[in-house]
Design brief:
The complex is a heterodimer. Helices cover 52% and strands 20% of the residues of chain A. By secondary structure, chain A is α+β, with helices and mostly antiparallel strands. By secondary structure, chain B is mainly alpha-helical. Chain B has a single domain, classed as Phosphate transport system protein phou homolog 2, domain 2 (Methane Monooxygenase Hydroxylase, Chain G, domain 1). Chain B has 6 helices and no strands. Classes of the chains: A alpha+beta, B mainly alpha. Chains A and B meet through helix 5 and helix 6 of A and helix 1, helix 4 and helix 5 of B.
Chain lengths: 406, 241
C-alpha cells in the first residue's frame, strides 16, 4: 500500500501520457511529445519531492526519538548527567544533576558553574573537537567534600551536543580520609587519659602497693578515665558515621514538637540532678521538617545537655520552637537557651570546631569530649540548616537552629 | 542572561567576558584553597605552585579590561549591557586581588614552617579559609545563576568571617604573650588570617557588584561590621600557667 502511494506520481504520469496519446488520436502529431514531456516532468519533479518528504519524515521521526529517548535516558541515569551544546550552555540536566549541583536550569553556561581550571580545560577541549571524550577527577571541597569522576564526550555524529556524566567517588575518598582523621584525632585525645591510667598503674605497683586508701582512690580515677575514653570513642564513631553519609535520605519528615518532647524527657534525670527547670515555649501549630529523626534528636540532645551542664547556675533552661526565616525560604527555629555564665564572645565563632573547648577544665569536669557541637554542626549541614549562637556574659547563651521548613 | 542583540558578535563578546570571569573565579578559588592547604601541611612545593599561578589571574584581569574597553568603544552599550561590562571590570579586579592575597599566604608558608605546635591555630585558620571560600563559591554561583535573592546569605557569612577573624586574632596575641619565640610565626599567621578575611571582603564586594548588574540598584548599605580587632587588647597574664 505504501509502495503504491509512493509510486502515485509515476502512475499518474503514465495514466496522463496514455490518456493524452489515446484521447487525441494518432492524427495529432504534437500529442506524443506532450505526453512524453508530461511523463518526464512528472518523473523529475515528483521523484525529488517524494524523496524530500521521506527524508523529512525520517528526520522528524529521528529527532523526536532522539529527544525523547535522550530525556528519558538522562532521567533513568542515577548519576548526575548534563547535556550541553557547542557554546557550553546547558540543554538538559537530569534530576540527579539538579540535586547535586542545584540551579542546573537549561540556558546556564557551564563554565560559569564549574570554574575549576581543569573542568574549564575539559569543556574547552571537548567542545572544540580536539578530543572526542575525556575523563578527570573533579573535587568539590565546600560546603561538603565531594569527589566525582567526570567524563565528557560528544553525543552521536553531528548533533552538536555533548554530555557530562558525574560518577560520585566521594564515598571511597571519604572512607580513606576518615580512617586517617579518626586515627589522628583519636590517638591525640586518647593519649591523655591513657597516660594518666598508666601512671596510676605504675604507682599502684610501686609506692602505693600496700596503701588500701590510695589504691581505692586511684582505681576510682582510673575508672573515670576509662569511662572518658569510652565516651570519646562513642562520639568519634558517631561523627565518623555522619561523615560517611553526608546526604540525607529524601522524603522523611520529622515532627519537631514530638522530638523535642522526647529529648526533654530523656534528659529529665540530668536536669533534675542539676536542679534545673526545663521550660517549654512552643508556638502554635505543627512543626514538621524534612530530615532524619534520630539525627535531629541527637542535635537537640547535645544542645540541651550542654545547656544543662554549662548553664547549671541559671536554674532554668528554655526550649522554644517558632516559625522563622523569610517568605521565600521559611524555616522552623528551635532555640535552646540557658541562663548560666554565657560564652565569651571570642570563642563563639569557633566552638563548633572539633576538640575546641572554651574552658578545658570545666569541659573535663563536665565529662565533655569536645565533639558535641561538632556533631551538631555536621548534622545541621546535612540538613541544610544553620545554627546561630547569641550569648552575653553573665546572662547565658542561646543556640538557635534554623531548619528549612520545606 | 541578556536579551539577544541584532549583532550576534556582541552577544558572543558579552558571553566571553562572563566566561573569563568564571575562569578567573575558578583559579582564584583554587589558589586560596591550595595556599591554605600548603600552610596547614607546610607544603613548600604547593606554596611555590600557588605563587606561580598568580600570573594567570593577572593576565585574566588585563584581558577582561582590554575586552571590556573595546566593547564599550565599539558597541556603545546601554543599561544592563553597560552594567554587565562595568561589573566585569570590577569583579575581575576583585578576583585579581583575591589571587594576590592567596599568593601572599603562600609566600608566608616558608616563614611559618618552624615552630608549628599550635594545631588549634591551624584548625582555626582552616575554618576561617573555609568560610571565605564558601562565600566566594556562593558569590560566583550567583554570578552564574543570577539569582540575587541568595545574596543576603553571603553577607551574613561575612559577619561570621569577621567574628572568626577577631577570635583568631585574640588567640594569636595570647600565644605571642606566652612566649616571644612564637612571635615570628604568629605574626605571619596573623597576616595570613588578615588576608583570608580580606578575601571575604572581596567576595562581599563581588556580591554587591552582581546585585548591581542584575537589578540596577545599589545594595542597601547596612553591611554588618563585626571585625573588632581594632579594639582587641590582651591583658598581661599575672602568672604564667
Amino acid at each position: 500500500m505504501v509502495r503504491l502511494w509512493e509510486a502515485r506520481w509515476y502512475l499518474l504520469a503514465g495514466l496522463a501520457a496514455v490518456t493524452v496519446a489515446y484521447g487525441f488520436g494518432p492524427g495529432r502529431a504534437w500529442a506524443l511529445p506532450v505526453a512524453v514531456l508530461l511523463l518526464f516532468a512528472a518523473l523529475f519533479s515528483a521523484k525529488p519531492r517524494a524523496v524530500r518528504i521521506a527524508e523529512k519524515a525520517g528526520e522528524v521521526e529521528a529527532e523526536g526519538l532522539q529527544r525523547l529517548s535522550g530525556e528519558y535516558l538522562a532521567a533513568a541515569v542515577a548519576d548526575p548527567l548534563i547535556i550541553f551544546d557547542r557554546s557550553t550552555t546547558v540543554v538538559h540536566a537530569n534530576a540527579a544533576a539538579f540535586v547535586a549541583f542545584g540551579g542546573m536550569s537549561p540556558g546556564l553556561s557551564l563554565p560559569l558553574k564549574f570554574r575549576a581550571p581543569e573542568m574549564q580545560a575539559l569543556l574547552d577541549s571537548v567542545v572544540s573537537g580536539k578530543i572526542a571524550s575525556d575523563e578527570l577527577d573533579y573535587l568539590e571541597k565546600l560546603p561538603v567534600e565531594r569527589v566525582y569522576r567526570v567524563s565528557a564526550s560528544s553525543v552521536g555524529h553531528g548533533t552538536d551536543l555533548f554530555v557530562l556524566v558525574f560518577k560520585d567517588q566521594s564515598e571511597a575518598r571519604r572512607i580513606d580520609r576518615m580512617r586517617a582523621d579518626f586515627i589522628a584525632n583519636a590517638s591525640h585525645e586518647l593519649r591523655t587519659p591513657l597516660a594518666s591510667i598508666s601512671g596510676f598503674i605504675e604507682t599502684l605497683r610501686g609506692p602505693a602497693r600496700n596503701d588500701p586508701a590510695a589504691r581505692e582512690q586511684f582505681l576510682q580515677i582510673m575508672q573515670n578515665q576509662t569511662s572518658r575514653m569510652a565516651r570519646l570513642i562513642d562520639d568519634l564513631l558517631s561523627l565518623s558515621r555522619l561523615e560517611m553519609k553526608p546526604y540525607l535520605k529524601a522524603g522523611a519528615r520529622v515532627d519537631l514538637r514530638q522530638t523535642l518532647e522526647s529529648v526533654i524527657d530523656s534528659l529529665g534525670p540530668l536536669a533534675r540532678d542539676s536542679n534545673l527547670v526545663v521550660e517549654r515555649d512552643f508556638a502554635e501549630g505543627q512543626f514538621a521538617v524534612p530530615g532524619d529523626r534520630d539525627e535531629l534528636f541527637q542535635v537537640f540532645e547535645n544542645l540541651l545537655e550542654n545547656a544543662c551542664k554549662y548553664g547549671q547556675s541559671g536554674g532554668r533552661v528554655s526550649v522554644s520552637v517558632a516559625p522563622g526565616g523569610t517568605v521565600a525560604e521559611p524555616t522552623v527555629d528551635v532555640t535552646i537557651r540557658d541562663f548560666g555564665p554565657g560564652i565569651p564572645e571570642e570563642h563563639i565563632p569557633r566552638i563548633t570546631e572539633r576538640f575546641y573547648r572554651v574552658d578545658v577544665e570545666t569541659s573535663r569536669a563536665q565529662k565533655g569530649t569536645g565533639l558535641g557541637l561538632s556533631i551538631v554542626k555536621h548534622i545541621l549541614t546535612r540538613h541544610n540548616a544553620r545554627m546561630s549562637i547569641r550569648s552575653e556574659l553573665g546572662k547565658g547563651a542561646a543556640f538557635t537552629v534554623h531548619l528549612p521548613a520545606n | 542572561m541578556q536579551s539577544v542583540h541584532i549583532v550576534s558578535a556582541y552577544d558572543e563578546e558579552l558571553k566571553f567576558l562572563a566566561k573569563r570571569i568564571a575562569a578567573m573565579g575558578g583559579h582564584a578559588e583554587r589558589m586560596v584553597e591550595q595556599a591554605v592547604a600548603a600552610l596547614v601541611s607546610a607544603d613548600q612545593d604547593l606554596a611555590q605552585k600557588v605563587i606561580r599561578d598568580d600570573i594567570v589571574l593577572d593576565e585574566g584581569q588585563r584581558e577582561i579590561d582590554d575586552k571590556a574597553i573595546l566593547i564599550i568603544a565599539r558597541r556603545q552599550p546601554m543599561a544592563t549591557d553597560l552594567r554587565e561590562i562595568v561589573g566585569a571590570i570590577r569583579i575581575s579586579a576583585d578576583l585579581e586581588r583575591v589571587g594576590d592575597l592567596g599568593k601572599n599566604v603562600a609566600k608566608r608558608v616558608m616563614s611559618v614552617t618552624d615552630g608549628r605546635d599550635a594545631t588549634s591555630l591551624y584548625r582555626g585558620l582552616e575554618a576561617l579559609a573555609n568560610l571565605a571560600l564558601i562565600q566566594l563559591k556562593d558569590v560566583l554561583d550567583v554570578y552564574a545563576s543570577r539569582s540575587v535573592e541568595k545574596i543576603g546569605v553571603v553577607r551574613d557569612r561575612d559577619e561570621q568571617i569577621d567574628a572568626m577573624y577577631t577570635s583568631l586574632f585574640r588567640e594569636l596575641l595570647t600565644y605571642m604573650m606566652e612566649d616571644p619565640r612564637n612571635i615570628t610565626s604568629c605574626t605571619h599567621l596573623l597576616f595570613c588570617a588578615k588576608n583570608i578575611e580580606r578575601i571575604g571582603d572581596h567576595a562581599t564586594n563581588i556580591a554587591e557588584t552582581i546585585y548591581y548588574i542584575v537589578t540596577g540598584d545599589q545594595m542597601p548599605a547596612d553591611r554588618p561590621k563585626e571585625d573588632k580587632t581594632d579594639r582587641v587588647v590582651v591583658q598581661q597574664p599575672e602568672v604564667a600557667k
